[in-house]
Amino acid sequence: MKLTVVGSSGSFPSAESACSCYLVEAEGFKVVIDLGNGALGALQNHTGLYDVDAVVLSHLHPDHCIDLLAYYVARNYRFEGCPELLPVHGPAGTAERLARAYDMDEEPGMKGVFDFRTLVEGTFELGPFTITATQVAHPVEAYGFRVEHDGRSFVYTGDTGPCHQLVDLSRGTDLLLCEAAYTHGKEEFADVHLNGRQAGELATAAGVRRLVLTHIPPWTDPERNAADAAGTYDGPVELARPGAVYEI
């Protein structure tokens, strides 16, 4: 499978990157994981607006979901007419949250454009992919995902503080796409996000083959976080750069 980093900035877009968004492809099937601030524009560098087969949302903070409002406009008002309903897998209340954000009635809200499906912990099939969703430590309902295809896998932590669930979810994965929003020694709310050191510790504990750090806000030094991760993990450590492509 092919993983493309569409946007990797945390909390708000940087001058170089949109917020969280990742395109996953296999056998011609395309899944977008998260669609944060600025991501819809960047996504068009990698696929057509109407070529996406499904969207999966880790949680409902704006830097992970808010560009679904723009995607609603692009699909609903398309000159040729609205395409078929697009499956959107998200936490409970996703449809209502997006309708409120757009200042529209919750019913029908955006249900004429998106087929909203509620995430729960467990494993489900999506096109050629097997996806395992695990609830992680964040102030709102949030999920990390293990995506598997043809004997290979990657794990996306989403936004999370330290929690034992991440080790089980990431065990032996080929690539761990791990958030590292905080800087070791500087964070104030240590149960909300990870830092580079903790990302490295997770990668070591889970025995992952490759660590890619993401969700680093513009005010956090990514090189320091990468160095901190390398201090606790012996495998390859990279920073998620917009446009980076990983063949898994």
Brief digest:
With 248 residues, this protein is α/β, with parallel strands linked by helices.
Give an overview in words.
This protein has 248 residues and is of the alpha/beta class. It has seven helices and 14 strands. A hairpin with a 7-residue loop joins β8 (129-135) and β9. The longest helix is centred in the last third of the chain and has 11 residues, at 196-206. The protein is globular.
Biggest sheet, strands in spatial order? 6-5-4-3-2-1-14
Q: How many strands, what sense, and barrel or not for the largest sheet?
A: 7 strands, mixed
Count of runs of 4 or more consecutive helical residues: 7
What proportion of the residues is helical, as a percent range? 10-25%
Task: Output the structural class.
Answer: alpha/beta
The succession of helices and strands, N to C, reads EEEHEHHEHEEEEEHEHEHEE
* Shape descriptor: globular
Output the radius of gyration.
17 Å
- Number of DSSP strand runs: 14
Q: Strand fraction band?
A: 25-35%
- Ends apart, CA distance between termini: 5 Å
User: Mean pLDDT score, rounded?
Assistant: 97
Low-pLDDT segments, ≥5 res: none
